[in-house]
Amino acid sequence: MTLIHELKNKGYTLTTDNYCTSPELAEILIKCKTDIYGTLRANRKGLPPLIKSSKVKKGEVLAFQKGKICLLKWTDKKPILMLSTLHSTSMVTVESKKSKSSKLKPAVVADYNNTMGGVDKADQCLSYYPVA
């Protein structure tokens, strides 16, 4: 919470990867008037057992809503768990850059890919240079 101290209670949105995202953090941020969305690990405390164990076919969505927190599981190539206090289960059409085709994705997945793509690329580049 120290990292976002100056941003609390100002209506900002935090995008996180699966290392940081949790229902517990979402509850804290809601109280600070800060939204959050990001990927989620299946072993996080506070997740409904059904979202962990359910098989979701490609293109399907399984979602749970508790207050402002939306948890969803969606399968593209592999299952993805997402948490959002900003999104619902709405779907958007996304154009593929490689195949020139389009597909439906949950809005939270599309937004996550747009905001976290740069971070993932930077992490990949940094991994090539080990720190001694």
Automatic annotation (TrEMBL):
Domain PiggyBac transposable element-derived protein: from-to ranges: 1-131
Identification of the protein by name: PiggyBac transposable element-derived protein 4
Gene source species: Araneus ventricosus
Pfam families on file: DDE_Tnp_1_7 (PF13843)
InterPro entries: PGBD
